[in-house]
Amino acid sequence: MNIRRSPLATAIAGAVLLTAILSGCSTAASPTATADAEGASFAVDSETLVFGVVPDSVDTETNYQPLMDYISKETGKTVEYHESTDYAALIEAAIAGQIDVASFSGFTYVTATNNGAELTPTSSIITKEGQEPGYYSQAIVPVDSDITAIDEFAGKKVCFVDPSSTSGYLFPTYNLIKAGIDPETDITPVFAGKHDVSVTKVGEGVECEAGFAEDSEVAKSDKVKVIDETMVPGAPVVMSTTLPDDLKTQLNDILSEVTIDQMIEDGIDSADTDGFRSVFYATTPVDDEYYDTIRDICEETNATQCQ
């Protein structure tokens, strides 16, 4: 089944492309890739690793600081935080070789590699012992709403996160199509930009009468209720395949399976907080094939953002 390309879709796709071209990170200057004598390259230099993220909430940098501290301690390199303005900007940074390690959404990873980014996944973060990698894309409505199913979203103002968000756009549009709703003509889409903002807007019930966000942000609000959910492949921690082979092996070793207790034992004091424990228990290995589900949905929806 295909999403029909409306003027809205064209505008969104154009905005994503324009943002990707024009947007930069929040740091003072964008890094410039450099290569060593053997042809391996770094975003900045051989003593620095640039860690890229998209801010999904106000706590994004705090949530990732312990992992960056751990990478720095284990590799002996300075780890720089690179906060892209949105998913499109992170994709563009990856394609341009401006990041060395990053936390992507599954959709962003697939889109980036489809467009030439030289990345490979090492692992996915889990938040509880025994948990499988993955999380939920949740359909939400205000807590006092009469809406009880996705097929009742027709005619409503619906919040999405970002056109390149896995749980905040790709899976939601797929589920809307399965429910018989064209996500471009049967609803009024609103792009909130971040998962927590989508939750807030839905809870307020003014700009959005319903919406989607990932479960970790939904759980923080008592203003919304969940009326449906879908398991999404866990967001990957990725590394650039242009890094030196020995460094890639080291990063894979330290990132593929590490627990919060191991990090604390290694002297990462920033990991020993309730805030970090709420978003991180361990990493578990994943590979490129793990994201074939996303590729299949991209093919079924013919989503422009997958291209």
Structural class: alpha/beta
The number of helical elements comes to 11
- Biggest sheet statistics: 6 strands, mixed
Q: CATH superfamily membership of the largest domain, which one?
A: Periplasmic binding protein-like II
The helix/strand series, from N terminus to C terminus, equals: HEEEHEHEHEEEHEHEHEEHHHEH
Name given to the CATH architecture of the largest domain = 3-Layer(aba) Sandwich
- Which word captures the global form? globular
Uncertain runs are 1-31
Task: Kindly describe this structure.
With 307 residues, the protein is an alpha/beta fold. The protein folds into 2 domains: 7-132 and 234-306, D-Maltodextrin-Binding Protein, domain 2; 135-232, D-Maltodextrin-Binding Protein, domain 2, CATH 3.40.190. 36% of the residues lie in helices and 21% in strands. The protein has 11 helices and 13 strands. It has helices at 7-22, 60-75, 87-95, 106-114, 166-178, 195-204, 215-218, 245-256, 260-265, 274-277, 292-301, and strands spanning 34-35, 41-42, 48-53, 78-83, 101-103, 119-126, 135-142, 157-160, 188-191, 210-214, 224-232, 236-240, 282-285. Strands 4-3-5-12-6-13 form a 6-stranded mixed beta sheet, sandwiched between helices. A 5-stranded mixed beta sheet has the order 9-8-10-7-11. It has a two-stranded antiparallel sheet with strand order 1-2. A hairpin with a 5-residue loop joins β1 (34-35) and β2. α5 packs across α11 (292-301). It is globular and about 60 Å long. Residues 1-31 have low confidence and may be disordered.
